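REVIEWER CHECKLIST
Item 1: Sequence provided? yes
Item 2: Single chain? yes
Item 3: Sequence as submitted:
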Amino acid sequence: MKPYRLVFDRMLTRTDPEQAHHLAFRAIRAAGPVLASRAGARLRTAGRGDLDTPVVAMGLTFPNRLGLAAGFDKNAVGIDALAGLGFGHVEIGTVTGEPQPGNPKRRLFRLPDDRAVVNRMGVNHDGAEAVADRLRRRAALLAAKDRGNTRLPVLGVNIGKTKLVPDDDLTAVIADYEKSTRHLAGLADYLVVNVSSPNTPGLRNLQSVEKLQPILDAVRRTAGQVSSTHVPLLVKIAPDLADEDIDAVADMAVAIGLDGVIATNTTVARDGLRSNADVVAGIGAGGLSGAPLRDRSLAVLQRLEHRVAGRVALVSVGGITTAADAAARLAAGAVLVQGYTAFVYEGPMWPTTVLAGLRDR
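Item 4: Structure as written out by the authors:
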């Protein structure tokens, strides 16, 4: 058993998951300078030892195909330290127009037997304005440094609906997304409209094309007003969509020239879990992530690719644990892959392990 897995299974599982997340993330940020140096050395390595093979997608050059999904760094406090672990892109957020405390604790739960996590965090973060200020400070610091040959990670910003904005008031919803866009689009390499978190009441109702397209049109229009360059726009969808709704989103993405679709977010389903049923029931509501999503997330990707036929970039996330999982998504049509829960279970060497496996394949 790997040392991290041993520590996780025998020690970290006894720690409150949210507290463990904050402690681990603090340690990653503290190691940021060392990680950045390591990343620079890796990116300067040529030949078979180079784990970072750049890929061009949506007009952007990604250092490699593996990214960190939204949810880990909601407040943009550790982007470059996370990139130092091997991630070629880091997606921050979800960020909403207004700051939110999130749902009452406890709100994060592990299911170790399934290598899964259930969360009902409720999009707890500092708000679009505070995150934008943080990103501007980061940009100023990077501009003042001699970056040498270090390739920066691509930065994605994931935006969602403020909880207090009623989902049945589309005008208010659009205004809320526009506010986040005005603050953040000019600081992002790409922008993601999240309408698929199960932890914001009514949010998934916005996945219907009739509501989703006006939101995307408004976000793209606003981004064009605040950024001098094209900011690729993607939408993130749930694994729980019916097949006909997946087809409708795919057709809309092609019709309006959307840059990409991210599939998938967490699921509200609890089918086929190994964990004790009473334990699962006791946890209650929330989005399930991790290994149990593998098959459904792959199926959604395959259906999207069949529909868009390469005309829209597809980013696959959900249940990716091994290099074989990542390779299967790439073979099914994804241009990029993301992880989160496997990173929690497998530890800080997980990104480079997956990249090494992809390289060897």
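Item 5: Key structural point noted by reviewer: The chain has 13 helices and 13 strands.
Item 6: Recommendation: ____
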